[in-house]
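ok, trying the design again with the full structure, not the truncated one.
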């Protein structure tokens, strides 16, 4: 008895899906170039991330201040205004002192990476019997030590840690999106069944 293919009755790609434009290839290429630049010049990338965080805090503060004007209860308005002012002050400080902000972000990054390593180790201890749980332990130990390297070499790690991690993220994102674009183009050229 033959079984039917699960994709047998699905429609083929629509004409809109068949056309894979240059943007599907240009954007990943840009990510790859930016990732390589960030890895080559990690200090410049870290400085850019520090400025980005500053602007995000400023815009977040403005959003809280605008949200406070919606006419809610007085207590809620006071908290919204206070949070908005804290965000604005933090954003302004980050923009006017980007190197200090970069150091604070690096210290926070080291703590977060170490905490992620601890979480992986705890996950391993809870899932010892699962397949490939040894890789969880390995990942947790390596992650913990990488976070420790960032943390214990602070403030000198401020120059390289954020930039290299952002660069690797951009590079990997660009590569996976480029592979996706090639796969989408290949699938779109398949004849409809």
């Amino acid at each position: 008895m033959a079984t039917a293919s699960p994709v047998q009755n699905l429609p083929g790609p629509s004409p809109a899906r068949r056309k894979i434009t240059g943007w599907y290839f240009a954007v990943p290429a840009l990510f790859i170039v930016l990732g390589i630049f960030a890895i080559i010049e990690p200090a410049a990338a870290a400085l850019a991330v520090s400025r980005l965080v500053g602007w995000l805090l400023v815009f977040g503060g403005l959003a809280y201040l605008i949200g406070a004007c919606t006419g809610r209860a007085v207590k809620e308005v006071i908290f919204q205004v206070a949070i908005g002012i804290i965000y604005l002050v933090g954003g302004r400080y980050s923009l006017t002192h980007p190197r200090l902000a970069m150091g604070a972000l690096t210290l926070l990054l080291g703590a977060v990476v170490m905490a992620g390593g601890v979480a992986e180790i705890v996950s391993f201890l809870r899932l010892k019997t699962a397949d490939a749980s040894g890789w969880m332990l390995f990942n947790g130990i390596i992650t913990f030590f990488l976070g420790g390297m960032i943390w214990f070499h602070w403030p000198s790690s401020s120059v390289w840690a954020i930039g290299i991690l952002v660069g690797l993220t951009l590079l990997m994102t660009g590569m996976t999106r480029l592979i996706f674009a090639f796969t989408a183009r290949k699938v779109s050229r398949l004849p409809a069944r």
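Keeping the full-length input from now on. The chain has a mean pLDDT of 77.
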